[in-house]
Design a protein that fits this description.
Helix content: 25-40%
Structural class: alpha+beta
Number of domains: 2
Shape: globular
Radius of gyration: 18 Å
Strand content: 15-25%
Largest sheet: 8 strands, mixed
Number of helices: 5
CATH superfamily of the largest domain: Pleckstrin-homology domain (PH domain)/Phosphotyrosine-binding domain (PTB)
CATH class of the largest domain: Mainly Beta
CATH topology of the largest domain: PH-domain like
Number of strands: 8
Length: about 200
């Protein structure tokens, strides 16, 4: 189901109040603030729905909380550095690593999405694919997906994460990486990879 259908409530049995809450969450996710997180949490509690009916919404709140923590850490200390043993990374500095799949690929490969200072790399299935940041025009998050849109909008790549936290934090980091030029020493080689 697409984000529009999700926001219209097609996945919540027509509960209008929950649909409104999800819409407010989507707005808060676009410009996260601690005060808005507290409001969303109290509004969700006020709905009085059973825990099983709001399990995804609780995950969404936790993802927003994790994103706020990450933004604060990046603002004070810079991008995180993730140790990884993947040879495809080479000498690139890795800033994000999470299990992911490519739902739009006919084979729907599952593997790992890695974000370095120079490129996004997906390792999984029969091939490794890469997309250099200079080719990325826009990065968006939709539910548990990170979407990288090539400049010129002629092509996009969707990576499905396992959690909202991974999707939101990965999107935030990808946006930061796509908006900057890599510092000297972060540029590695991509000889073993196939461009996306």
């Amino acid at each position: 189901m697409g984000l529009l259908g999700w926001l219209k409530g097609q996945s919540n049995n027509g509960n209008r109040r929950l649909t409104d809450w999800r819409r407010a969450w989507a707005e808060a996710a676009g410009a996260p603030e601690a005060s808005r997180l507290a409001t969303l949490e109290s509004e969700l509690d006020a709905l009085g729905l059973p825990d099983d009916d709001v399990e995804i919404e609780r995950e969404m709140l936790e993802a927003l909380r994790d994103l706020l923590r990450l933004r604060s850490a990046v603002d004070s200390s810079g991008l995180p550095v993730v140790e990884t043993g993947h040879r495809v990374i080479g000498k690139d500095r890795c800033h994000f690593s999470a299990p992911a799949s490519m739902p739009d690929d006919p084979a729907q490969p599952a593997g790992r999405l890695l974000l370095t200072g120079v490129r996004a790399v997906f390792v999984g299935g029969a091939r490794t694919v890469t997309l250099p940041w200079h080719a990325v025009g826009e990065v968006v998050q939709s539910e548990r997906d990170i979407v990288l849109i090539r400049k010129g909008r002629d092509h996009l790549h969707r990576f499905r994460c396992n959690t909202f936290t991974e999707a939101m934090c990965g999107t935030f980091l990808a946006q930061r990486l796509a908006a900057r030029r890599p510092p000297a020493g972060e540029i590695g080689t991509a000889s073993a990879a196939t461009p996306l």
